[in-house]
Amino acid sequence: MSTESDARFWDRTSRHYAASALADQAAYERTLDRTRVFLRPDSRVLELGCGTGTTALLLANDVRLYTATDISAAMIAIAKEKHAAKSIPALSFRIATAEALAPESGQF
Question: Which fold has domain 3-107?
Answer without folding.
Answer: Rossmann fold (3.40.50)
